[in-house]
Amino acid sequence: MGMPSVVHPALEDPRAEHARYWRFSGLPGTEMLTARFVTTTFTRHTHPTYTFGIITGGVEEYTHPGGTSRVGPGGLAVVAPDEVHTGHAGVPEGWAYRVFYPEPEVVVDIARELGLRGTPAFTESGIDAPDASRLLHAAHLAAERGDRLGSSSLVRRGIAALLRSHGRERPPEVRERSARPEAVRAREILAARLTGPPTLEELAAEVGLSPFALSRAFSATYGLPPHAYLNQVRVGRARALLVAGRRPSEVAVEVGFTDQAHLNRHFRRHLGVPPGAYQRALSVL
Hints:
Elements (H helix, E strand, L loop, with lengths): L17 E7 L5 E8 L4 E4 L5 E8 L1 E5 L2 E5 L4 E4 L5 E5 L5 E7 L2 H10 L6 E3 L3 E2 L2 H16 L2 H19 E3 L5 H4 L2 H12 L7 H8 L3 H12 L3 H18 L4 H8 L4 H12 L3 H8 L3
Antiparallel strand pairs: 1-2, 2-9, 3-8, 4-7, 4-9, 5-6, 5-8, 7-11, 10-12
Helix pairs in contact: 2-3, 5-6, 5-7, 5-8, 6-7, 8-9, 8-10, 8-11, 9-10
Keywords: DNA-binding, Transcription, Transcription regulation
InterPro entries: AraC-bd, AraC_XylS_family_regulators, Homeodomain-like_sf, HTH-like, HTH_AraC
Protein name: AraC family transcriptional regulator
């Protein structure tokens, strides 16, 4: 079934925003975003997937492990799985983009076809790769029209072009292996206690560190302080429950947010859309 076209905000309304999150059936486990943001800002967060954002207007500015990137029309904002990053407007009129979020296995499979070994990474985050950008943009438009064959072919060609021009093998992950065991234990405690997490002081005492030392060790290992990591996990759990058809008000309580408004606020700061819109687009029911 074809997808409805997205009407971009009129130029005479410079503060207008829109966002649509949806599932792409042309690649396994891949979600998509079509959006224009002006005042929206994304807190420090991660995705379990790759992020390939094609900027179609304005400028997006964002931080990532390599520094800060500013990407304008035709450029690509590329973030690897589990990389902590932010996002906000780089110019007063904001930015518009089309984003693919493919599962790591999808990108690995394409890389293998090109003869690349190891986990695929990229030489930079803000990337100027006209051929890849053109193919990915065409793939996004085709997916929106419901052209499954055309979109799935184009997106694979686009990712392959990007890997050829800017791909590399991701260096071995050393953070987890070198992490203080107290940070690893703190992460396990937070993941197990979403609805009743300890205070930082209680968490630090439980793992045998001072609050300052724990916060520093945790951030060094996971890229986020404990409270931000907790909210990241809550949003991830909420996504799965929403897709399964649970009501947002129930989900909010089940993952540890105080109410639905609290869930809405954090959901928007991580994904750019409210929980209800996300559920309507991706629900299996």
